[in-house]
Structure formats: structure tokens, C-alpha cells
Amino acid sequence: MNLFVFSIIVSAVLQVGCQNPRSYWTLLPNILVVEVNGSLGEQPLSCLESPEEVMRRDKEGEDIVWKKDGVEETQRGNSYLVQLEESLGGGNYTCHNKDGSLINHTVVLIQEDETNRRKILVKNDQEDYLKCSAQNYNGEFHCSWTWHRSRVGSVAFIKAWRVSDENETWCTLDTSVQLWRCSTGQSNFSCSVDKSGHGISCLDEQHCPFAEESQRIHVTVHVKTQHFLVESYSKHFYLSEIVKPDKVRISKLNRSMIEWSYPSSWSSPYSYFPLTFQIAQLKGDAKGVTTHALTQK
């Protein structure tokens, strides 16, 4: 089935030049992204994987039946033209034998150009779409986002790498554990989507917390809607720029004394990763605080 995507690309190269000037690229095996600009167009797909397979079928595969999202289409044969109009045309396209058995499939996702794009995510208080933070220097970080209230979607693809890495980044999805892995010659990242669908957790597996970072981390998240629209959002940073310690653990508390310790998630040894604590002494009654004093330790 993985070869089907490459068959689509070959077919598109042969036909798209005179039919549709838009760009297109493979996101994952059997997932094709087509960029549109709002005008009419067509995107060709192919069912069979090679010319030899086409020749083995009667009348060049005219018995092949196509379906879009489970609904049978009128087009027949090895080739199929996806009709593109504005942001329409995306869907799950399958090709079948006459008896209904599945031959191949591909998901077509639509990406609008910058001038027509309607954002799936909304900006946060920092006027950004992705908010990333880390609880320590160990190489783990978390990025979250807010869905548009009328366009809630899901993650289609995750890519993470060090920006200055000259080697090409290869990303794969382990569907058994829903874990994304991205590798280059100098870095290895693993990422997973939160159960809530509002963020991802990633780990730079080759990060050394005791060394100074020389390359920024670059994260790109592709999100899609149920209507097969796809958009990508990116952010780059040093881990040191996004570190925010977890809550301090208070282990003892009485009327005259409190004791606290470093957050359990903080990097060690503490002598190498020191924290400065601020203590606020608040005075007031149950209705509200009237005065306060601030000291540091």
C-alpha cells in the first residue's frame, strides 16, 4: 500500500502540468496534500501501482470503481480526477474491484494559500498559535494550542528537529503507540499527542542538559479538520528560553515554620541547576490581605 503514494506522484507529474498549477506533496503514505488558491482545478490520482498492473486488467482498468468518503463516483478506470473548487475537494478516495473489494486508497487534504487561509487555531495571549514550555533542562517540552470554536480538528503530522541540522529530517508514526519519531544525523525527537488533543509532548533524546545549546529546536504541527482542511503551525526556541519550574513542594507547614524543596521534576544536581525562591509574608484577615512583605532566599 505504501507504493500507492508514489504512484500518485508519478501520475500527477505526467498530468498536472496542463491541468492544475497548484503544488502538492505527500504528508504520509497514502495522504496527499494539495495547495489551492480558490480557483477551479483538478488533481489526478491513480489506483494501480504500475503500468504492468494496468496492462493485466481488461480495457486498462475500466472495471475499477472509485468512491469518495464511501459514496460511489461516476468516474471509472485507473485514473481519477479530484475536482477542486475553493477549499472543496478533500476526502478519502478509494478504488475497488467490481465485487467491491478494496484495491487502494488515499486521503486528499486541502491546504489553502496564505491569502485565503482560515485559521484552524487561534492566537494566545502572546499573539502566537503554539505555546511551548519545559519543566527542566532534560530535553522534554510541551506545546499546546487553542482550537477555533467552529473548527476543532486533530493532529495530522508532527515534525521536530534542530534548526541548524543540515541533514534531512525523517519523521514516522508508530501507530501502535501513536508516537511520532523524527531523526536526523544529529538529533532524535519523539512526540505524542495529548489525550485532550490540545497539545503535544516531545523529547529531544540526544539533548545534553549540561552542555550549552548551539541550535534551536524547530517544531511544526500539521492539524486537519473533519472537512479535510490542513494547516501547519511552527515555533522555534532554545530549551533555556521556555523552562518554567513546576510548583514548589511544601512538606511541612505550621503556625511558625514552613519547609519546601525543589520540584520533583527539576533537573539535578541542584548545585548545577540552582533555583532562587521568593517568599511572600501576607498579613490580613479572612476577608482579604492588607499588607505583605517580600523576601528572597
UniProtKB/TrEMBL annotation:
PROSITE patterns per the UniProt record, alphabetical: IG_LIKE
Keyword Coiled coil: no
Localization: Secreted
UniProt domain Ig-like: residue ranges: 29-95
Entry keyword Magnesium: no
Gene Ontology cellular component terms for the protein in this record: extracellular space
Signal peptide bounds: 1-18
GO molecular function: cytokine activity; cytokine receptor activity
Alphabetic keyword roster: Cytokine, Disulfide bond, Glycoprotein, Immunoglobulin domain, Secreted, Signal
Source organism superkingdom: Eukaryota
Pfam hit, one: IL12p40_C
SUPFAM superfamilies: Fibronectin type III
Subunit structure as annotated in this protein's UniProt entry: Heterodimer with IL12A; disulfide-linked. The heterodimer is known as interleukin IL-12.
Family membership: Belongs to the IL-12B family.
Protein name, per record: Interleukin-12 subunit beta
Species this chain originates from: Seriola quinqueradiata
Gene: IL-12p40a
